[in-house]
């Protein structure tokens, strides 16, 4: 019988058998999969798990707090938060090319995460031998089905550790599809904002600013994005829309008029798409009233934005993200 209760029971037993009395680390991304994997492992081994969240400063409004407060409140997990936003901003300074941004964000992410792992390894307590990953069934099939290990390099960082540390992987979602993962997460008591979350790219808002990423631009985009999300949710469109990137065209300015004066501000692009798997997508024919509300609110409430435009391109030829 497939029930969330049975899945949880089976996985809790399997995790306990695998980990024994050793310790495990789980990286949280803010996404559904890592949160549910961590919650399952937490249920199985409690304080033998330490979760790590790298705050790269590229998350949307409220998302870091969701991990820091709501996830911890729901699971009781040990969470180590690393605020690395300054480091990411520095590394991204002057960079506009999308693939270069992705590479920098990915590289910095691994460095910060590995440093956090090493710190946990050096704490008192049982050996840390496991790394938890939120691998789903479709990922397993795509990668040929193997399970494995992960290495971190310790050399330049701290003494007393071998050069190469190997973790065995714990992958409690390997038999599950996305909708099943959401059900398991809900059963484990995770809030809707986490388990029903739409896809969001790892590089975050860094690839939704067309142009250089700066703190001011991130703050501006966070405000515009929060307004769009609020209105889409209020209109009941969260299920119909697969995801709706909100993009800041930071290098574009256009003329506007507001109050008594002429403005010269930036456009915000709304990119609502409908999709089954993100491989192909169509732009969502969403209600004009909701578009009007979002447009009015963004231009009124977000300084330096004087225009909101709608992306009406399917995928292909457009990708979902603008970068
Ligand atoms: P595109 O833009 O290629 O996006 O149509 C397809 C799906 O993938 C997400 N996406 C990413 N996710 N890292 C991620 O983790 C990335 O660099 C990345 N780029 C795109 C995108 O949000 C959409 O769901």
UniProtKB/TrEMBL annotation:
E.C. designation(s): 6.3.5.2
Record's keyword annotation contains Ligase: yes
Keywords on record: Ligase
Taxonomy, superkingdom: Bacteria
Major enzyme class: ligase
Protein name, per record: Glutamine-hydrolyzing GMP synthase
Gene: guaA
Entire protein: shown range: 204 to 526 of 526
